[in-house]
Amino acid sequence: MPDTEGRFAATHRKAGDVDIYFIVGEGKGEMTFRNQSSDVQVWDAVSGQRHAAQAVGTTDGRTRVTLDLPSH
Fold this sequence. Notes:
- The structure is a single chain.
- The protein is mainly β.
- It has no helices and eight strands.
- A hairpin with a 2-residue loop joins strand 2 and strand 3.
- It is globular, with a radius of gyration of 12 Å.
- 6% of the residues are buried.
């Protein structure tokens, strides 16, 4: 099973018990992640700002997140 599914390119790593995904792309879309979490944050790699993401757990133990990534 892949770490992610969806419209954007992603890479994954773990830091202790935290899953970290680096997402690349632009526009609106959904991503599904192989882990289940209710505390999902989006971090802006340029500004360092972060905010809670719209995340929904799925019945198969995955997490679906709606993203809106800016251009450039």
